[in-house]
Amino acid sequence: MSEVNRIxxxxxxxxxxxxxxxxxxxxxxxxxxxxxxxxFRLNYLSLDPTNRIWMSDMDQYMPPVELDAPMRxxxxxxxxxxxxxxxxxxxxxxxxxVWADYQIGTPQIVSPMGDTRPVAVVDAFSTFTIVGPxxxxxxxxxxxxxxxxxxxxxxxxxxxxxxxxxVAKIKGCRVVGLAGTNEKCAWIQDDLGxxxxxxxxxxxxxxxxxxxxxxxxxxxxxNVGGEIxxxxxxxxxxKGRIPTCxxxxxxxxxxxxxxxxxxxxxxxxxxxxxxxxxxxxxxxxPEAIATLGQWMAEGKIKVxxxxxxxxxxxLQTVKKLYTGANTGKLMIxxxxx
Amino acid sequence: MSEVNRIxxxxxxxxxxxxxxxxxxxxxxxxxxxxxxxxFRLNYLSLDPTNRIWMSDMDQYMPPVELDAPMRxxxxxxxxxxxxxxxxxxxxxxxxxVWADYQIGTPQIVSPMGDTRPVAVVDAFSTFTIVGPxxxxxxxxxxxxxxxxxxxxxxxxxxxxxxxxxVAKIKGCRVVGLAGTNEKCAWIQDDLGxxxxxxxxxxxxxxxxxxxxxxxxxxxxxNVGGEIxxxxxxxxxxKGRIPTCxxxxxxxxxxxxxxxxxxxxxxxxxxxxxxxxxxxxxxxxPEAIATLGQWMAEGKIKVxxxxxxxxxxxLQTVKKLYTGANTGKLMIxxxxx
Lengths: 337, 337
Description:
The structure is a homodimer.
Chain A (H helix, E strand, L loop, with lengths): L3 E7 L12 E7 L8 E10 L2 H6 L16 E11 L9 E7 L3 E4 L4 E3 L8 H23 L6 E4 L5 H12 L3 E6 L2 H10 L4 E4 L5 H8 L4 E5 L4 H10 E9 L20 H4 L3 E4 L9 H13 L7 E5 L4 H5 L10 E5 L4
Helix pairs in contact in A: 2-3, 2-8, 5-6
């Protein structure tokens, strides 16, 4: 075992975009697991839009990362030293950890991955740990799409959005996705089967969206907030649903961000806007994983992963999420399982 | 029967506050009911915040009043000529009508009041036609308050808000109300039993509200939108509910109104924001009326009505709703039943 532990620590709360001075990359000693805990070595680090939330001190759904503490992340690793009977050395685990080669796990926040076959560990981690259940519960439980309804999803070529659209297609909906490049639009429309893809950077969103949704919108799966939310609100049908999964357009804002100008549509059309975090559905993960796994095996759901090698590249890579530079699930690979 | 029918017609869509030129008061001939319809004479005209919505061409929940058409209103009247077997001459009816002495009713939009005893017709019309069921269904069905939770209501001395707070007290909640004068605050706290009343015009709302809600807010019954909504969002508890009944702070706006700056709290605290209109609950009116009637008979719910005599005063009187100049249900009386 190497004697050195490389670890990213939060040094400054970002103001606006994430800058190079918000995190520092340190070499430290490897921690020792206490009774009931275990030490694991990082294989994959998931990079997610919520990382920017955790860095800041905005109102959020769990405490922010403290200054000078290790940066929090969703991780997959291999147990190398264990003081817990359920976590044998060599076991593959995933859960909430930190951006470090070696780290301590406890059963409260890190679980065994179990046998993921026929899906490779990297794909199981990529799809089943966060983004798959997020799409599954957010769309089906909060969005409640019905056959023949129109579902719109933003960040549609993203890790969550791409699955949302495919699940909505499985449920018999008309699906419209918004993405930021022509390549992304081609992928969701030609490969994933979305009915319409809109490039929100080059097209007039209110106009194009109106044309793409001749029967209005029944479910808007919101990953972004901002102008796209406003354009969708304007088109929502009576009793429409807006599962609120993310508001990435405003995470990097330096000034207070106004809510949607069409907020009154919530009243006029009797909409339901409901926020959720996938952790709220933790008890029902097996259901989501089984169903999504089946759909993937049948070729009904395709996923795309963007893997960058090297923990040292984590800071530069996470920035991509906020400029739309990635496609599909973004991850750092330290060492393949 | 007088030969002349006085009638208010919409001549101009208001820009900002309602001005004297948006409606004109005309003398016209009395209409003749066709087969299946009936003619009724106005007794009471309900004045409601939604009147301003109907005058405008903003996005809304039913078509706006057309220019030059009679102004729409919720009315109570007495049948004077009938071509419908269920609506005998002399029957007291209520429903959706117009601001006119005489008007045509049909069973689709006007219903018999039935025997309202022991409640006087004026009180039954005042409480049971719109505001009581609005408070009842909005709070109980959308807000789902549980014993011991904290419920906040804006426009708390208004016709709907005052009932919302009293029903929440019946359900065992801590109730905080916001109103615009010290007299209104004294009424809801001393006479209606609210736990705390906040004068939003003279007090620092975010600060006072924080002090008034040491355990956060579980249900915010929103009648107003705007800054009060923002202050409440900031204090919402995990899985809080925001029944959205009205957004009166923005009905008279002349520029686009930004949504709440704390919109992201919907995501962070997994809130449910849900719009509703009492008409959506039309089938369950008997339940609301029976329950509210019982509570009123037991003295658990008190209502206050502000009655202004004379249809000719309708335009000047409706303006009061948008300046907070009224207390309790605002009505025009043409002729007592």
